[in-house]
């Protein structure tokens, strides 16, 4: 791969720098070449975003004979410094609400499930503190991260108790009385002001950095390199911050994407322009230099777990021809809340089968109204999602989940999946040949209405919502199917961008926007073909890649073969034959 001028400038740079890299811009290649260009005896630390990236990066550095590079995540680095030294016991999962009630001996009051509501707020306050750069809990205002009005009223009324119990819980972990969480040992690492023995530290995905880890990073004497994409910041809800904005280093850019072509680049820039409704952020320029033409991997990407599950359920219940599917992060992670409750628990609560409920928190609820009130008091979005699905599908859920799991291929067979389902957060760093976007992202119309509503707007949260759509759009290497309402006004369609319009009750293929078909024939047309075209105007014409893609989109969106035949000007048998060749059904 020939390096760009931007990449060469980074490789030849000196001192502390930050690199703002657009999606698919060869960031990993640049980091590798930067490491190669450092003195051979340099000690280099590469901080990866998560375990899977760490393993992949370790392999790449090793293949390039860069044995002087140590690859860690923030947590793996902290683990070695803290857990080993203190002989802490580490939990695999975070604590559950009911466990906090028991550990801290929280008492109820006249309010239903009061102790569980308080425990939920304690857990959130603990996470907020552990990810912050503060040294004391009292330096933070927990209300700053509570956005739901009902939840905020509860937290405000019992703030002193929530803060005190948060400190008690942290003290129990610190003393080793109970198992510690992953966030806790990262916090402990930051508080001990470690000095890392490296000459260079490369901090990747820094747009979503833990403030605790950033504090550690910035205090090091090593030459520091921050790498990320400001517009891919999507973990603010986990208290992550954009290090690219915090660090006052010399800035470099990687603005050419090798993943997708200019059509997709233009769409990505159009989405980012939504930010101008709220602030004066400089718009970025993205050059699309991708040349991929494959259609092998197909992904459906949603903003929320609910949106994704509803789309997946639609596929298994209405599109019987899809037999191999895959969920990024495994399907179970979408049907269980972080607390441990499952869709089955919520369904059993609705059906009043309380003896069949496994989760202790859900078992405490006598009715669905109790659960909904708890959700209002805590702003628990995952439980809220489960309630919505249970209300929508009820007793069909066991059969639906069984069908989803039967169709789900193993991790090693992911390449065999006909459709890959993922939320934006779970497909971060992934790429697919073709992507379909679910209609649960924020729209420009919604942003404009918010702007003129007179309400207080949290600009950072709105920007992150826009970033989510940008990340989803930039996962594609070739084509994208996207709801029209998510696209900038008057944005042109192309061979790579297909707009999905909202359909009336009877699906009409004419409502979809596709590039104009260019049909030309140079050979003489036989009589039998002319005869057939009297009733089917495009009979016997060759199928092009664009037509195949159009056929695939319409079939996946529920257009029946009879209407497809009318739309394409062909016979129904010709449509069925082509769909079979495209493996749209068995």
Automatic annotation (TrEMBL):
Q: Which residues form the UvrD-like helicase ATP-binding domain?
A: 1-267
Q: Which SUPFAM superfamilies match?
A: P-loop containing nucleoside triphosphate hydrolases
Xref: PROSITE patterns = UVRD_HELICASE_ATP_BIND
Q: Which UniProt keywords apply?
A: ATP-binding, Helicase, Hydrolase, Nucleotide-binding
Output one GO MF annotation: 3'-5' DNA helicase activity
Question: Which sequence ranges are marked TM in the entry?
Answer: none
| Keyword ATP-binding found | yes
Gene Ontology biological process terms, A to Z? double-strand break repair via homologous recombination; replication fork processing
The name under which this protein is listed is: ATP-dependent helicase
State the organism named in the record.
Flavobacterium macacae
């Amino acid at each position: 791969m020939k390096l760009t001028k931007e990449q060469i400038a980074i490789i030849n740079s000196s001192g502390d720098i930050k690199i703002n890299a657009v999606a698919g811009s060869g960031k990993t290649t640049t980091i590798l070449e930067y490491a190669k260009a450092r003195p051979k005896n340099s000690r280099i630390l590469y901080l990866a975003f998560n375990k899977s990236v760490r393993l992949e990066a370790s392999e790449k550095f090793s293949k390039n004979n860069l044995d002087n590079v140590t690859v860690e995540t923030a947590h793996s680095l902290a683990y070695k410094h803290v857990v080993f030294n203190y002989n802490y016991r580490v939990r695999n999962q975070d604590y559950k609400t009911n466990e906090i009630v028991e550990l801290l001996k929280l008492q109820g009051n006249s309010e239903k499930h009061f102790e569980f509501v308080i425990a939920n707020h304690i857990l959130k306050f603990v996470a907020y503190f552990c990810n912050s750069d503060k040294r004391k809990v009292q330096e933070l205002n927990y209300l700053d991260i509570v956005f739901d009005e009902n939840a905020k009223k509860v937290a405000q009324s019992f703030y002193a108790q929530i803060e005190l119990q948060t400190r008690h819980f942290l003290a129990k972990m610190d003393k080793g009385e109970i198992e510690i969480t992953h966030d806790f040992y990262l916090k402990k690492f930051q508080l001990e002001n470690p000095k890392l023995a490296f000459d260079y530290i490369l901090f990747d995905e820094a747009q979503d950095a833990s403030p605790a880890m950033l504090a550690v990073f910035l205090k090091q004497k090593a030459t520091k390199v921050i790498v990320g994409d400001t517009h891919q910041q999507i973990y603010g809800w986990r208290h992550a911050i954009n290090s690219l904005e915090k660090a006052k280093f010399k800035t470099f850019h990687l603005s050419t994407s090798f993943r997708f072509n200019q059509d997709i680049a233009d769409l990505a820039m159009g989405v980012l322009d939504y930010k101008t409704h709220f602030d004066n952020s400089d718009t970025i320029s993205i050059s699309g230099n991708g040349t991929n033409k494959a259609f092998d991997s197909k992904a459906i990407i949603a903003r929320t777990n609910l949106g994704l599950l509803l789309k997946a359920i639609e596929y298994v219940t209405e599109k019987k021809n899809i037999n191999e599917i895959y969920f990024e992060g495994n399907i179970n992670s979408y049907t269980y809340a972080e607390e441990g409750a499952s869709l089955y628990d919520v369904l059993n609560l609705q059906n009043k089968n309380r003896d069949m409920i496994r989760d202790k928190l859900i078992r405490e609820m006598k009715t669905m109204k109790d659960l909904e009130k708890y959700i209002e008091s805590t702003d628990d979005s995952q439980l809220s999602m489960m309630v919505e699905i249970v209300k929508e599908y009820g007793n069909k859920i066991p059969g639906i989940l069984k069908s989803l799991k039967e169709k789900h291929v193993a991790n090693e067979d992911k390449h065999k999946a006909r459709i890959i389902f993922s939320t934006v957060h779970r497909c971060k760093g992934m790429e697919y040949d073709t992507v379909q976007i679910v209609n649960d992202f924020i729209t420009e119309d919604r942003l404009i209405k918010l702007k003129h509503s007179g309400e207080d707007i949290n600009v950072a949260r709105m920007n992150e919502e826009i970033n989510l759509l940008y990340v989803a759009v930039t996962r594609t290497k070739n084509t994208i199917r996207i709801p029209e309402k998510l696209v900038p006004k008057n944005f042109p369609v192309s061979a790579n961008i297909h707009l999905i319009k909202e359909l009336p009750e009877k699906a009409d293929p004419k409502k979809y926007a596709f590039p104009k078909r260019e049909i030309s024939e140079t050979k003489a047309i036989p009589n039998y073909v002319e005869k057939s075209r009297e009733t089917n105007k495009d009979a016997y014409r060759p199928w092009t890649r664009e037509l195949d893609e159009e056929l695939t989109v319409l079939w996946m969106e529920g257009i029946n073969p009879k209407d497809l035949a009318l739309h394409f000007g062909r016979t129904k048998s010709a449509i069925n034959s082509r769909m079979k060749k495209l493996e749209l059904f068995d």
